[in-house]
Amino acid sequence: MLIADDLDKLLNILPDFICQPLKNHPNRKLLLEVVIDLGRKPEARFPKGPEYLSNRTISWQDLDCCIKRVGNFSGDNRSGIEKTLHRISSIKNRNGNIIGLTCRVGRAVFGTISIIRDLLDNNQSLLLLGKPGVGKTTAIREIARVLADEMEKRVVIIDTSNEIAGDGDIPHPAIGRARRMQVSRPELQHRVMIEAVENHMPEVIIIDEIGTELEALAARTIAERGVQLVGTAHGNYLASLIKNPILSDLIGGIQYVTLGDDEAKRRGSQKTIMERKAVPAFQMAIEIHERNNWIVHEKLDEAVDQLLQGMDIIVQRRKLTSQGKVYIRCEYLKSNDFSSNINQNFNIKQKYIKHNNIARTLNHSSMFLDKREKFMSAIQSNNNFSIDTLNTKSYYNKRSMFLYSYCINLQQIEAVINTLQLPIVLTKDVLQSDVILALRSNVKQNTKLRQIAKSRQMTIYTIHDTTVPHITRALRQILNIYKVSDLNGY
Q1: Among candidates 176, 139, 149, which has minimal Cα distance to 320?
Q2: pLDDT tens readout for residues 6-50
Q3: 152 and 84 within one domain
Q4: How many angstroms separate the first and last alpha carbons of the chain?
Q5: 41, 67, 479, 488 from 482: Cα distances, Å
Q6: Is-contact 56 39, C-beta < 8 A?
Q7: Which of 58-62, 312-316, 324-328 has the highest mean pLDDT?
Q8: Both 95 and 129 in a single domain?
Q9: Residue 456 neighbours by CB under 8 Å, 6+ apart
Q10: Which of 4, 183, 206, 430 is the most buried (most CB within 10 A)?
């Protein structure tokens, strides 16, 4: 992995009592940013924490010295150094005078997207999520270079703050053959996005920090014109984007729907639910939690639907080691009011896939067996990969019972299963279930459910009340009658 940072050019704008300690610092290659505030000690921030660079406090003369070397600040209080990727942001007082500077180090990291290089071949729009400073801009800069140079696509970058391609009229070499359109004022970013499509015939548009409703609408317009999008947005998890009323349009938008009585009983949910309103502007989403630890949602529309329905989903966690190996582990994501907590106690079986120097680890979840098989078959269709076969259906049939519930709250059943660690997996497809658990007062009215159970020779277990004791007693009775190892649900 090659890194180009032009750190000396950033240090040259700083006063000598700040510059010299950084030049001799053993961890200068890991420097994230330098903070200069009036009346305070200069501070350098590293991944492991901040450090003071001098006991001398910052004066007006020190700030003026830095500002004169940097140049003018734009409407978003940002500036840069020509032909570099560094960003200098200012803090102003009520009178408009600059009283603080944040000098962020910009680095071009070549090879950082090897962790998702295979996803770029799908020609699908990609949305990167993550907190500030986690490396989203570095990633899309490298994505732009790969798409333009290696895949020879017409790439246009909408560079609002000159952070992707650097300051000045000549873009930084890190973006390769990609073209860059600058934005005069941040509030005009959505107009430049549309202008890029109308005037320059791009195949791919790169957008950094989509943050307003107009920009989200422009992204949807671009996607509807058949242009591939690569963008970033602030948000740690996909669930946080769903709850964001401004940016939810990126993933299709959210609307409230009122169900009929029969449908609400069948789902075991309330009559008013949330559903996705339209097709997402992006087909894939990536959560960047750490620089080398990413979570991938390959089917964004399905992931959003499952989160809105309170279903558990499978995600890919990809990690890049220092040796250049990429590990992929599929994890079981518990959906609880859009909370993104990975259930580490779920029983999984690991598989290893090797391709040259890339070792990938796959974990299989029985609840989403069909999705896992699709995922494996998609990889197997690529001749570059070699996968050991595994009879997943027989493996999971020996370990778990698939239960379909009717008119019973799924959260209550799931709480009982998790508390007692029962070998039962909930399914919302009655045709994939082994047994049916229903509320007695409602199952008599459902002729179709009884016909399905009769044709598949499944037993319908009923309970009088949807309380936890009744559910617990029914589940234990089912497990006592059926031996899980003898089930043949699939």
Answers
A1: 139
A2: 899 999 999 999 999 999 899 988 899 999 999 999 999 998 899
A3: no
A4: 46
A5: 71, 76, 5, 11
A6: no
A7: 58-62
A8: no
A9: 431
A10: 206
